[in-house]
Amino acid sequence: MPTTSREIRIAIIDDDEDDFFIIADYLKAIEGNKFTIDWCNNYKEALQKIRARQYHIYLVDYRLGNHTGLELLQEISGDELDDPVVLLTGKGNKDIDVKAMQSGATDYLIKSELTTEKLERCIRYSLERSASVREIKARESKYRNLFEGSKDAVFITDDNLVLTEVNRAASLLFASEAGELVNRNFYDFINEPQQREQLETLLERKDAIKDMEIEIVSQAKEAKACLLSISFFTGPDDGQLMLYCILHDITNIKKAELANIQAQKLAANERLMRVLAHEIRNPLNNISLSADNLEMSEEDPEMKPALLEIIKRNCLRINHIITELLDLTKPPELTFQQHTLQEIMDESIAMNADRINLHKITVQKDYPDIPLEISANKSKLMIAFTNILINAIEAMEINKGQLSISMTALPDQYQVSIRDNGKGIPEEYLSKLFEPFFTLKKNGIGLGLASSYSIIQSHRADMVVESRVNEGTNFIIRFNKDN
Fold first, then answer.
1. Contacts of 410 by beta carbon, 8 Å cutoff, 6+ apart
2. How buried is 193 (Cβ within 10 angstroms: 0-12 exposed, 13-18 middle, 19+ buried)?
């Protein structure tokens, strides 16, 4: 018997006192035992002790007066007790052995064959089995509580997505009772045919699914936006492939996101109108003042040409602002052809050669040996690159500027980097950099980078900016290889 600091309480339930003493002697002979051994010869009292869980293990004789040990086992079988019960008989009987095990007995021993070693092994095995059963029940209870108590819809299906078990949250999400959902196919609740086909493809490949966005329609015909996660496991009984599915309802989150986007759009429109009004009001004020002075120019005819020039210049400025704004907001209708990024960048640099030379900027290029070919509208992409290059040139000090242009072929993308060592951009302004009319330049309109961003997006590319004040800025543009 393994040494243990725990005292083990044993009840011998037998209507024969001599048998009790014999069994007790065997138990006391077990080396290192720490047993408390009690005798019970009354059927009803035995039931009470077992149900009260007063002992760690019960050795029950088959003959108990007018009752049998099998009757006792059958009577306590519905009580969900996990303390081990060992049935003892006067002689071997296979039929009784089978019935004992079916009724919940932990073991079956023949009195005439009892030895200290057999009892020691039986008690050790029974207590270990009882501890294992308790642990399994505790785990089952814990996971059952997680399953039933989850706020997400959790359900189990076979490999064809036929529901076999659902939790309460699933019943609420599908607007149907659990009994009505069992044997229903999950595909029946998916609203979009494309989503069904995508899910079928993933399941055919036995791919685990995590947070796949999907729309389901409940029995109440209510559409719900959800995130679906699926993992695979093998059924414990028949080894059949089963699916463990979790549906997280994001309908309210989607509504909140939509409301937030609408609010942001309204705020952006309001900000755009204020900036646009400010940008147009300045040249209009110049025109108005010039017109007033023009009325008085008869006394000084030499003023007239200068005033007309002011009016003309400010009218051109207003027209330029409106043209830039229209170009920015209307969807570009672009034609695309195959070009290399090296070619487009080199021509963009050449267009800015005068600026680069006047500012005495050093240009360093790092291109891969292979041509990075994309489908592009060359003239538009040159405008986007040029706007970024101009910003970089103007951010650097004369004689100290270093412009680094690099290109990298990544597994799925081509990455272009335009880095300067200029004054940098404060972190609080980075998020506004591509907004129309946002500018840090004294005389800038704030449409150059916004236009570049729109062009980059029209090429199905993305652009991010990294910057540190007094260290410089890096514009990173990533083009998909299959664009």
1. 478
2. exposed
Tokens of 452: 């570049």
Does the pTM exceed 0.85?
Answer: no
DSSP 469: T
Q: Where are the beta strands (DSSP E) in 67-141?
A: 67-68, 85-89, 107-110
For residue 189, the 8-state DSSP code is G
The reply to whether 268 and 210 lie within a common domain is no
Question: Rounded CA gap, 42 and 15, in Å?
Answer: 7
Domain range for 215 is 151-249
Please list, in sequence order, all residues whose beta carbon lies within 8 angstroms of the beta carbon of residue 172, skipping any fewer than 6 positions away: 153
Whole-number average pLDDT of the chain: 83
- Cβ(213)–Cβ(225) under 8 Å? yes
Q: Say if CB 376 and CB 336 are below 8 A apart.
A: yes
Tokens of 254: 């989607």
Residue among 78, 250, 84 at smallest CA distance from 151: 250
Q: Is residue 140 part of a domain?
A: yes
Instruction: Please state the φ and ψ torsions of residue 459, each to the nearest 5 degrees.
Output: -95, 15
Q: Residue 3 domain-assigned?
A: no
Q: What is the DSSP letter of 186?
A: G
Query: Counting Cβ atoms within 10 Å, is residue 337 exposed (0-12), middle (13-18) or buried (19+)?
Result: exposed
**Is residue 2 situated within a structural domain?**
no
Dist. CA 86–CA 101, nearest whole Å: 10
Statement to judge: residues 345 and 473 lie in one domain = yes
Q: Residue 311 belongs to a domain with what CATH number?
A: 1.10.287.130
Residue 23 maps to which CATH number? 3.40.50.2300
- 189: nearest Cα among 214, 164, 152: 214
Q: How far is Cα 401 from Cα 341, in angstroms, rounded to an integer?
A: 24
pLDDT tens digits, one per residue of 284-336: 777 777 777 766 666 666 777 777 777 787 787 777 667 666 665 555 567 88
